[in-house]
Amino acid sequence: MEKKNITIFFKRLLNINPKPTTELNYTNNFTLLLAVVLSAQMTDTGVNKATKKIFPLADTPEKILKLGETKVKNLIKTINFYNTKAKNIIKLSTILIKNFNSSVPKTREELQTLPGVGRKTANVILSVAFKKPTIAVDTHIFRVSNRTKIAIGKKPIDVELGLEKIVPKEYKNYAHHLLILHGRYVCKARNPECYKCVVNDLCLFKNKNLI
């Protein structure tokens, strides 16, 4: 996609969604971290159903440890891989208390020292909590980027680095959310709704559904 069209692409997405943000519910940086860790291979809706049970009881690392692993498991048992995620929540809470004064760290390198936190999760935290222009490539962003040809890659890291190069500076703080929401509600995996897409004339996808 040409550079001028990439600018138009993001401008249009922002025009229809001027305040894009995560659809995960959270109350502070710690609960955001927990929500994102829980969101692996889960929908945001599914995560929100579980976190509305746990967050009123524990919104700090100390309170999570006080609940204990068994209680945490019971509270998040509707989450995929809840046993492993409960263990990670306990471990990361311990590390936050010990190494980070109970605060969520502000660098990707530090975030990735926490159990259950990979590059994608770290990028979400950096973007949402600390307003850094990072792009966490999930399945939606990976699909939209490759389908529209704004950033092509066989691996998420390739797409992430490609997007970092081509997204105009004025849109970098929004790109992550704009692409996720576009992929979730319009540029869907099986039946993309190209007929209502505001960037379908810019998109280089050949098999557009325009009816």
How is this structure best described in words?
The structure is a single chain. The chain is mainly α and about 210 residues long. Helices cover about 55% and strands about 0% of the residues. The protein folds into 2 domains: about 5-20 and about 135-195, Endonuclease Iii, domain 2, CATH 1.10.1670.10; about 30-130, Endonuclease III, domain 1 (Orthogonal Bundle), CATH 1.10.340. The protein has 11 helices and no strands. The protein is elongated and about 55 Å long. The mean pLDDT is about 95.
Roughly how many Å is the radius of gyration? 18 Å
Overall geometry comes to: elongated
- Tell me the count of domains: 2
Q: What share of the residues does DSSP label as strand, in percent? A: under 5%
Q: What class, by secondary structure content?
A: mainly alpha
CATH topology name of the largest domain, in short, is Endonuclease III, domain 1
Largest sheet entry? none
Q: CATH top level of the largest domain?
A: Mainly Alpha
- Which CATH architecture of the largest domain would you pick? Orthogonal Bundle
Q: How many strand segments? A: 0
N-to-C SSE string, H for helix and E for strand: HHHHHHHHHHH
The CATH superfamily label of the largest domain reads: Hypothetical protein, domain 2
Work out the helix count: 11
